[in-house]
Each structure stands twice: as C-alpha cells, then as structure tokens.
Specification:
With 719 residues, this protein is mostly helical. It contains 27 helices and no strands. This is Putative membrane protein DUF2339.
C-alpha cells in the first residue's frame, strides 16, 4: 500500500510539472506542445501508456490546440488589416501670425480711433462757429455710431471672412462714438439728463460686451475697453463730476470681466486693469476731490482683478509662472498709485494686506502652494511698505545700508555661498540705484556725497577681488572667453563714474551744464573706435560707447542756459547726433569702421543699428525740445517737428529693413509709428489749437485707413 501511494504521488507530481510546462508554452505562444518524460530522482525514465494518461492532461492538450487554431485565425486578418492601414497623417500645424501681420491687423483699429477723434473735434469746431446746435451735433454723432454698426453688420453678412478686420473696426468705432457722444451730451453740453445718459451708457456697454461675446475676439475686447476708457483722457481740465466718471470706469471694467472669464482672455484682463487704473489716476489728477473715493476705486479694481485672476488661474499650466508674475507686478503698480494718491496710505495698505492674507489662507486649505507663496509675499511687501510710510530713514542709514550689503556680498564671495551672493547682490544693486536716483552731492560735506565716494570704492574693491578669484577660460582658438567679472563688470564701474562725474561737473564746475564732460567723452569715444584693441583692450571701447550713450541720455532733458551757453548746449547735442548718424551710415554702407572692426566681431548688426537709430532720434528730439525751451523757434513748429521726426524715423527704419534683412529695425519702425500715433492723440491735443487738431486727425485717420487696407491687401497677395 505504501509503495502504491508513493507511486501515485510521484505520478501526480509529474502531471503537475507537465501542466506547468503547458501553461508556460501557452503564455509564450509556442507552436506546439513538447512531450517530455518526467524523471524523478527515485525512479528511472518511464513512458506511461496512453490509456493511463491523466484526463487533465488530455483536456489541456485539446484546449490548447483549440486556442491555437482560434489565435491563428484571428492573427491572419489582423495582420492583413494592419498591413493595409496607412499611417495617419499628422494634422497641419496652425500657422502663427508674424509680427508684421499682427501690426497690419491692428493698424485699421488705430486709424479708426484717429478718424473718430478727428470727426468729434471737427463737430466741436462747427459748434464753436455756431453752425450747428449742440442737440443737432449729438444727433448726428448718434447717427454716425448707428451707421457704423449697420455697415459692419452688412459687411459681416456678405463677406464674413475677408471683411473680418473692418467689421471688427466698424463695430468698435460705433461703440466708441456712442460712448463719447453720451458723455459729451450729458457732461459737456448738458443736452442729455444724467439718468438718461447713464441708461444710454449702460446700453452701449451692453452692446460692447455683446459684440465681444459674439465675436470672441480678444483684440476687439481690448479695443472696446481701451476706447471706453478714453473719456478721462479727453475731458482735459473741464469741470465734471469725478464720482460719475469713477462709477463709469468701474461699470465698464466689471462688465468686461464676464467676457474675460467666458473666453479665458487673459491679455484683456491685464490690459483692462491697467487702463482702468490709469483712468482713475487721470481723474484724480483733473479734480480736487477727496482722495478717499479714488483709493476705494483702486482697491475695488484690485479685488476684481484678484477674483478674475483666480478664476482664470485654473486652466493655466504652461504659462502659470508668467501670470503669477503679472499679478505680482500689477499689485506693485496698485501700491504705487495708492501711495501717490492717498494722503495716508496706511489704512488702504492694511486693507489690501488683510485681503491677500485671507487669500493665502484660503489657498492653503486648497493646497495651492504657489498661490500661497504669491499672496503671502504680497502681504509681506505691503507690511514692509506700511513700515516705510510710518518710519522715515535717517541720514546714517544712507551709508550703513550699502555698507552692510557690501560686507555681506564680500563674505558670500569669500565663502562661495551662492544664496548669500544672490541675496546681497540684489540688495547692493538696489541700494546703489536708489542712491543714484534720490541722493545728491550738495552740499559738499554731507553723508550723501560721502556715500557716492564710498560706493565707488566698494565697486573698485569688488572688481579687484572678483578679478583675483576669476579663472579665465579659453576657447579652441586660444582666445579668452567673455567673462563677467573682467569684461562686463567694469562697464558698471564706468557707468557709475560717469554719472558721478556728470553730477559733480554740473554742480561745482559748469553749474548745471556739463559740456566739458560731454565733449571730452565724445572725443575719447570716437578716438577709441580708430585705435587698435591691442592698445586699449577689447572691453574699454565698449565701455566708452556705453558711457557715450548714457551721457547722451543725460543731455536729453532741457535746462536753462544763458549767453554763449545757449549755443554750446545746441552744439553738444548736434555733435552727439552727428556722431551717431555717421556711425549708422558707416555700418549701413559698410564703411571703414565696418571693414576694420565691426565685420570681425560676432555682433548683431540689426540690433546695433536699432540702438543707434534710437539714440539719434532721442538726441534730435532733445535738440527740438531745447529750441522750444530757449524760444529760438516757433512753438507750433517745434511740436510739429517732433511728430514729423517720429514719422520720418519710422519711415527710414522701414525703408532700411526693406532693402536688407533687418528685423529689429523693422520692429523699431513699427514701434516708432505707434509712438507717433500715441503722441498725436495724447500729447498734441494740448499743444495744437482746435482747428489744426481736427484737420490733422481727420487727414491722418483717413490716410491711415487707406494705407492699412493697402498693406493688408498686399500682404494677402504675397501669401
């Protein structure tokens, strides 16, 4: 019995092993089952008869054969089908607009604004000559507004694709004319009642929000909010109710946020906030009302921004750091305006601190660590600002603060502590910049003047210590690579030295006219361009060029001069402008400097030309300002000359970029074109009389619309 039991156990063990082998073969997808004889250590090799084979093995063999047949039948059509399938072609990538196309997209809107302003001022001219009554003028303006809307609607129905640009412009033009007409009828001409005008304004605001909602166009949304907030800029210094305008700004900004949240228009959110804050600031500047309601308006705008930003923050994942930076910067802008407007900014800042501290607590409950960091940091900054408002810095701290930052930076460099180096570098840079902006060197024996000299010593010591620690790296050609401590840092030392020398010269030598410093610097800089780098080094030349640019910027503001100084002042500006223009011509025509120096450098010619053209423009612009200040030329000629100078420089930039591949110069041309238009709208309004203003705006607006349409059609043909 025991022997039979042992035999059965051995046979069962062999069957289990066989089943395991069969399962492994099924998993591997083998072609057949291997019939193996199971050997045990106690028994020799055996071939059991078929009739004694266990029924489990038979069932497994039958099932395995059936599964193989089914698998083979399924594999054949799948392989054929997969071979017949083609690889799916990836969808074509969406073509992104170039900068030029975006500018062409915006030009019709800009010129529509100019044309609308020209029409409005033209109607005012007609009213001043009593050709039309105020009521008839308001009726005509409303007819123009409704007409633009109807024309845009008809064009949208007939050609919804090709006329998309101009329909958006027409919708926006009808909106701005209606808003401004309502404000003019109620505030300026007293034709409409305040409540009726408020009702019409709400209707137009609803229309503006509706077209933004229907069109889903972020550019249109920005255009609507921008044109809606033009009212504080156009009221000038007339007597009006500041509370009504503040309410108007809050209503427009609040209604537009519904569109912002609906379509995630983050750019509209930021631009509308900036325009609204500037509008509040303009209203405060034009009125003598209490600052309390303006501060409350700033706080309400900031709260709305925070709510909308929180709502739009969820879908942001790739660009969330940028949006966090915008929130941080715009809050700094809010703090700046509150400090500027409020008589005592302590309570408003405490209120904002409580708001952001609450946001930090709420975000902490939702495990939003990044928002907690932002809100907490903003709360700390507001608390720091409150402390700065309450406690003024005494004269001793003017010296101690830069000194402590300098010592901390030196210890960080010695210990090679990266965190200390970064922290104290930022602090030291901040204190130096604040000192240059705020402090003066008069009288001579003062802590402020001493601090100028001490900071210069700090910079020299830092340069010597950094040069001692720096190990030069060489490239494959055996030339030393560009190093910050040796090549870049001396530029900042030279910059600080020239700023101090300019202040000292204007205070103790030339009496507000640093002509000696300016002329010597120009001569030395020009000479360095023709001297070999073996004599002066590769960095000194660029330091002198940079100092030349800084000195040019310092000569941009106008100042009072008498006698011969009037002509010396003009001579300095002319010399600087001619030097810059000569360098531009030499580089563009590939002259001596280009062949002997610039062509051997790895330098961006496009960027260099752009900077040089900006410098020449600023110098010539300052020359016109000085002529106006000295009453040498007629006032209207100077104002017109400035505007013409901007347009001419923009035209030259675009012409140069058309003959050569100069993208940055082209961008400069479009930028100057925008600046010229903004100057025409916001600056020349006060400088020119009403007749010239209306005529100039109508002409430029009409020509601009015509040229922009031609540019768009030409760009379409090229595509």
């Amino acid at each position: 019995m025991e022997k039979e039991t042992d035999k059965r156990i051995e046979r069962l063990e062999g069957e289990v092993r066989a089943l395991r082998l069969e399962l492994d073969e099924l998993k591997r997808g083998g072609n057949g089952f291997k019939e193996e004889v199971i050997n045990t250590p106690d028994t020799p090799k055996q071939n059991p008869p078929e009739e004694e084979e266990n029924h489990l093995i038979k069932l497994n063999k039958a099932a395995s054969k059936k599964n193989k047949n089914q698998i083979n039948k399924k594999d054949v059509p799948q392989q054929v089908q997969s071979s017949n399938l083609k690889k799916p072609t990836p969808p074509p990538s969406k073509k992104q607009r170039s900068l030029e196309e975006m500018i062409l997209w915006l030009l019709p809107k800009i010129f529509m604004v100019i044309l609308v302003l020209g029409v409005l001022w033209g109607l005012k001219v007609i009213s001043d000559f009593e050709l039309l009554s105020n009521g008839l003028k308001i009726v005509l303006a409303y007819c123009l507004s409704i007409g633009l809307i109807i024309i845009g609607f008809i064009l949208d129905l007939r050609k919804p694709d090709s006329s998309q640009i101009f329909t958006v412009v027409l919708y926006g033009g009808g909106f701005i004319i209606g808003i401004l007409t309502t404000a003019a009828g109620a505030i300026l001409y007293d034709v409409l009642g305040l409540y009726f005008a408020l009702l019409l304004a709400l209707v137009y605001i609803g229309y503006g929000v509706t077209i933004c909602y229907v069109k889903k166009n972020q550019v249109l949304s920005i255009f609507v909010i921008f044109t809606s907030l033009l009212l504080p800029y156009l009221l000038e210094y007339m007597d009006f109710n500041g509370m009504m305008i503040l309410l108007y700004v809050l209503i427009v900004y609040g209604f537009m946020q519904f569109v912002v949240v609906k379509y995630n228009q983050s750019i509209t959110m930021y631009t509308s906030f900036i325009f609204s804050m500037l509008a509040v600031h303009i209203i405060w500047g034009l009125n003598d009302d209490s600052a309390g309601m303006y501060v409350i308006s700033l706080i309400l705008l900031n709260m709305i921004l925070l709510l909308v930003w929180w709502e739009l923050y969820k879908p942001f994942s790739k660009w969330r750091a940028i949006h966090e930076g915008f929130l941080f910067s715009l809050n700094g802008f809010t703090i700046l305006l509150i400090n500027f407007i409020a008589d005592n900014a302590t309570f408003p800042l405490l209120f904002l601190t409580a708001i952001y501290f609450t946001v930090a607590l709420f975000a902490n409950k939702r495990n939003e660590s990044r928002i907690v960091d932002i809100a907490g940091t903003l709360s700390l900054l507001k608390i720091f600002n409150i402390i700065m408002v309450i406690n003024a810095i005494d004269h001793l701290e003017i010296v101690l603060l830069p000194l402590s930052a300098f010592l901390g930076l030196m210890i960080g460099l010695k210990l090679n502590a990266n965190l200390m180096k970064i922290l104290y570098s930022i602090l030291f840079t901040f204190f130096v910049i604040v000192h240059l902006i705020v402090d003066d060197i008069t009288p001579f024996w003062t802590m402020e003047h001493l601090n100028y000299l001490l900071i210069f010593i700090y910079l020299i010591v830092l340069f010597l210590y950094l040069k001692r620690l720096t190990i030069l790296e060489f490239n494959e050609e055996g030339k030393a690579k560009l190093n910050f401590s040796i090549d870049i840092y001396p530029i900042f030392i030279a910059l600080y030295f020239f700023i101090y020398m300019y202040n000292f010269d204007t205070t103790y030598i030339a009496y507000n006219n640093a002509y000696i410093t300016a002329i010597v610097l120009a001569v030395v800089m020009l000479a360095s361009l023709f001297i070999s780098e073996k004599l002066i080094g590769r960095v000194l030349k660029y330091i002198l060029i940079f100092a030349f640019l800084i000195t040019s910027i310092n000569h941009i503001p106008t100042h009072f001069v008498e006698g011969v100084d009037i002509w010396l002042n003009l001579l300095v500006r002319v010399v600087y402008a001619l030097i810059v223009i000569a360098i531009i011509v030499d580089i563009y025509m590939k002259g001596y400097l280009y062949k002997t120096w610039i062509s051997h450098l790895k330098i961006d010619i496009d960027g260099l030309l752009t900077v040089a053209m900006v410098g020449a423009l600023l110098l010539l612009y300052s020359l016109l300002s000085q002529l106006q200040f000295d009453s040498t030329v007629n006032y209207y000629l100077v104002v017109t000359g400035k505007t013409v100078l901007l347009f001419v420089t923009a035209t030259m930039s675009l012409w140069m970029s058309s003959t050569k591949e100069l993208r940055k110069v082209k961008a400069l041309g479009y930028t100057l074109l925008a600046i010229a238009i903004l100057k025409l709208v916001f600056s020349d309004l006060d400088s020119l009389n009403l007749v010239i203003r209306a005529f100039l705006f109508m002409v430029i607006g009409g020509i601009g619309l015509f040229l922009s349409s031609k540019l768009i059609s030409k760009n379409t043909k090229n595509e």
